[in-house]
Amino acid sequence: MDAGGDQVLSSHPQPLISRNYKGDVPMSKIEHFMPLLVQREEEGALTPLLSYGEVHFLWIKHSNLYLVATTLKNANASLVYSFLYKTVEVFCEYFKELEEESIRDNFVIVYELLDELMDFGFPQTTDSKILQEYITQQSNKLETGKSRVPPTVTNAVSWRSEGIKYKKNEVFIDVIESVNLLVNANGSVLLSEIVGTIKLKVFLSGMPELRLGLNDRVLFELTGRKYLGDLSSGKYGIGKGLANICRMCNRILHAKGQFKKQSVANGVEISVPVPSDADSPRFKTSVGSAKYVPEKNVVIWSIKSFPGGKEYLMRAHFGLPSVEKEEVEGRPPIGVKFEIPYFTVSGIQVRYMKIIEKSGYQALPWVRYITQSGGKAARLAGTVG
């Protein structure tokens, strides 16, 4: 980053607090920042980086405060701004509200934090949880003779403390797939995709190494599926999708579960848009129940359990005082919500989970598969009338 110094200013030209990390930028240079900012703002040419002679001001605003980093060099701007926002985050963790009063009331702690956040122009410890282990609001000064550097500061990872122990070592793995489907008025599939996420909830002692193995990529290539992402990141996408297909014929809505017969979709909810002036609703369903929600202009068909391969019908009748001709493109889509436990549409499976820890303890991995509706729905030609 190589920034010369940090300043915290209010709307007044003089800084509330400052820290010169390298000594290469004179502290008096900050006096030019506020007049320059006001001038650029009046000209309508305000930018997040302002320059006065050889000095560059990189600044952000939070509440009524300006946090300004000064440098003489061509510093890494993205890193500087990332540091400034991280500084705001740390101050908010300490003082709840970051404003002029909280800075004035906590000068000692602010200076201690600035010394730990950066050293000679280079960011150091910016994790507020680590900082709170040895910079507390109860004591304004660190007892250097007795103080001990927390292990997390020198640890390989800052997000996990040393010495963590669990009575029962377990790992819970959730493979969650969302199915997105978009169909045009002619019944052609415009979009059919599966977006998957692998989530882990870990209760393991020490600092274990986890190795997750999934079924072979060759399996997907043989079945014609295509990877759209990197499984190591925990998210993936599969090109070909499969979903509940809803089809409207006149006043009848057909819903068919196009998934394996041994699987069951739970909590199915189909939302069918209707004209805003519809009234006197009557429904007849082969399974489940339907209700009219006038404030949302939809009919909601609820089915508690929907086995794969089954097809159900809903008949609806409305009175329409006036005829509203809507363009097909302007009609809202039919929405489908569902969840299928113990099933993945893509066929992805967890083959193994290896847990390696120096103490050699035994751990139990648990795997759960869930398929659910995604954020996209089927856009169809028919409406209920």
TrEMBL record:
GO cellular component, one term: Golgi apparatus
Ranges where the MHD domain occurs: 168-379
Compartments where located: Cytoplasmic vesicle, Clathrin-coated vesicle membrane; Golgi apparatus; Endomembrane system
CDD domains xrefs: AP1_Mu_N (cd14835)
Keywords: Cytoplasmic vesicle, Golgi apparatus, Membrane, Protein transport, Transport
GO BP annotations, alphabetical order: intracellular protein transport; vesicle-mediated transport
Membrane topology note: Peripheral membrane protein
Top-level taxon in the UniProt lineage: Eukaryota
UniProt family annotation: Belongs to the adaptor complexes medium subunit family.
Function: Subunit of clathrin-associated adaptor protein complex 1 that plays a role in protein sorting in the trans-Golgi network (TGN) and endosomes. The AP complexes mediate the recruitment of clathrin to membranes and the recognition of sorting signals within the cytosolic tails of transmembrane cargo molecules.
Protein name: AP-1 complex subunit mu-2
Originating organism: Aotus nancymaae (Ma's night monkey)
